[in-house]
Structures are given as C-alpha cells and as structure tokens.
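Run log, item B.
One chain of 158 residues. Sequence copied directly from the ordering sheet:
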Amino acid sequence: MDKKVFRSRVSVALVGFLLAVFILTTSPMFYCGAIGELYILGGAFLFCVLIFAGMRYVVAGDKLYINIIWIIPYGKAIIITDILSVKRSYNLLSAPAASLKRLSVRSKKSSKKSKHSYLLISPAREQEFLDTLRSINPDIDIQVSDKKGKWRVRDWDI
C-alpha cells in the first residue's frame, strides 16, 4: 500500500493570536505570583503547540486519514473516490487545519448520520497533495488558485 503523509500548513496569524492570548493572560499571573496557574497555562500552551505541529493528512491506498498528535485519528477515513470537489476556503469554522488558508474537500455523504459533506484541511505541500488526490480520482473538480489575493500579506498566508 502506497502511503503519503502531508503535514498541515501553520498560519502566522493563528500562531500570533495564540501567543498574544498566552502573553496577555500570563503577565498578570506572573506579577501576582500565581505560579501554579502559570504551570497550567504553560501546559495548555504546549498542548496547543503539539496539536499544531502534529496535524497530518495521510493518503493511504484510496483513503484520506487525518491524524492529530501522531496517534489521535480525527473522525473516519474519507474515501478519495467519493470526493467530488476541492476548493480554496478561508472559512473560520473549527477544523483539523493549523492555517486559515484551507481547502474545502466536498464528498458524497457516507451515511445519514453525517451532518456535513465537506471537510476543511490545510496541507503544506498543497499542489503535491492535490496531484496525489487527482492520481487516485481523476474526476475530482479542483478549483484552487494560488494567486495573490486579499488574504495574503507579504507572501504570508493568514
């Protein structure tokens, strides 16, 4: 079985927001001497860093798996032959993506229990990821442009 692993793109804006929240919440604690609370916030911050660093999209055979922190599977596998389209998205919904520059992967609903038929992901080697999907399912409608747009600042994707 051929297996390719793609890590998640990490957004400068999300990391900056996370750092700002951490600094703004720890500064008063530091001056008040709340050392125990600082350890708790530090652990939460490290957990967030592990989640950001550990997001992976694995294409194995004809399935797409999403792994977080190397061991935790996110939902069920997506069958690549069921994928209908892939489009660019800057949707702010919670997703297994460490960037705001995302791909919206639309697929057939696998069951009646499924609420949504799409998934938001952000692979770092995006073009290679799309080529891998297309090699398995050439019928995927891919509408992804890498042109500079309003969501790019000095070639940084937010």
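Observations after the first pass:
- The chain has a mean pLDDT of 82.
- The longest helix spans residues 12-32.
Flagged for discussion on Thursday.
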